[in-house]
Prior knowledge:
Number of helices: 24
Helix content: 25-40%
Shape: elongated
Structural class: alpha/beta
Amino acid sequence: MNKALIITTTSGFLSQFELNNVRLLQKKGYQVHYATNFGVPIYEVKDETLRNMGVVLHHISIEKNPFKIKKNIWALRELIRIIDREAISVVHCHNPNGGVLGRLAAVLSKRKPFVVYTAHGFHFFQGAPVKNWLFYYPAEKVLAKFSDIIITINHEDYTRADKFHYKKDGGAALIPGVGVDLEKFYPLKEDEVHERDTLRKNLGIPEHAFHIVSAGEINKNKNHRVVIEAIAKLARSDIYYSICGEGPNRKNLETEIKKYGLSDRVFLQGYRNDMPKIWRTADISVFPSLREGMGMAGLEAMASGIPLIAADNRGTREYLIDQENGLVCNAASADEFAKAILSLYENKEQRQRYAARAQNTVEKFSLHESAAKMSQIYQKLPKVPEVTIENDRERPMISVIMGVYNQQDLEVFEKAVNSVLQQTYRNFEFLIYNDGSSIKKVNTYMKELESKDSRIRVIGSKANHGLGYALNQCIASARGKYLARMDADDISHPKRFEEEISFLKDHPEYMWCGTNCKLVDDRGIWGEGVRPEEPGTDDYLKYSPYIHPTVMYRASLFKKVAGYDEGKKTARCEDYELFMRLFGLGYKGYNIQKCLLDYRVDRENYHNRSWKNRFHEGQVRYEGFRGLGILWPKGWLYIFRPMVSRFVPSSMIVRKKERMADL
Length: 663
């Protein structure tokens, strides 16, 4: 299966602007993956929408600010791992820093995928600060050499991008923005007047007031302060202003509003997921941005039949002509904005004329037009091979997945295999991945297993890659509806699969389940591993709240999210990293409160882990806790737990586990 990875710096960007591209890629046969920082939403985050569309989600540490070097280096490494681990064949990156890290990750990866970058507005443009030209222009020129296609959304950017040097057969493309959905954004209808009036009232707008609406992230570039100043200059008590959006400049705007004594008429409405209705409450819209690549808010207002006043920039020049279909002002001039607002305030006919012409203009910026252009661009992507669909009746219900590397005790290995084959639930396949084992008798035994039972399939490689890699290879080959973990030295109780699959069938709200276990070594049972029934956030602090070899997943989970991390950092804690990541993405697991597995742990030696592994676990904890929002205050204490516990005598921990182990 060909896979495409979309990269953005803010998590809500995809669901806000790029869902149509997801559909186009899926229509072409691609499985779509999405990498972003889910801790920086800005826009409304629709994770469930993405999951329901089959998008595989990856949380990365990417930051919008390119000068946050440490976090962005982490993000670059994460992206490289995702590209190589998931065998990504197309990278489509967005936002300036997403474009930088996405293209660097592509060129540094082993896969060398096809690279598309959508520039939603270069930071270098006519009239941009000199520092932008000194920093961003050379960077973009160099990165173009790693790009197959750079997509621009305005003519000024396209003219510059067209002069860059690209990968072989690469080049620039121009689209009419990300597209306005004209089925959502349209002028007020007669049967919607009552709903409009009710919404105005809820927004704090009096019945006969003149209502101005702006939409966009609250930052300095969006320049809302110039409109506030203009309204203050007009001193009209019936002019009200709603700013829809959130962002880092909110407190500054609140100060500006109070300074001009406009707290009763200028409202920060926050992020709104009902903008089509909000536009229809407006008499006019003002779009005062200093810089825009295109400016979807302006186009949405025009599509909604709302007269538009906008600042002069390369984005609004694509669709707004002064005194033809709207009014254009100098972004820095409150006087010009005041004059424009007053002109439309006093002249209803002028408002109607601009609104009618604006609707004609916006047709060529519709979602339909944008999708047609993107479809042409995606024709250049690597071709997806046809996949033969297997008959469901021929598929096993469970795929048992096991990674094996130099399992020295052959008798223990045989007992583990037999405990799977002797399960009361029989409809499964057993995938064993030989991860470069060098012990001859073990390799011979694995070769003979396929002839022992037709349900067994042995796959593998000559080189050792680690358990995370082995399990991902098993997942990629699995045909079952459920995935049952198993280690090469543990023993599953006969009814383990039967009880786990029964639970998952009866509880669709859980994506996996585990169980408790008995702790065993060559001398027999010496303790018990117990986990919380339904782990919550704090249960991830001490240790992984699931005993890995007891877990059964829904296979569909790994069509929505990435599998095990394969990096050296997660060696011996790849399960911990995975469970924290899944929990952070909103997925839930459960622990059946029964011991359904004998977990082989030497009571004297299990505590002896290298300092390197302990340090790496601390790193995994830090990144996982940060993603879950539990770094402070307790999280920092538990980050150092693996190192500190090295000084605790093994005998003390063994005595505790003999009572009721918290392994």
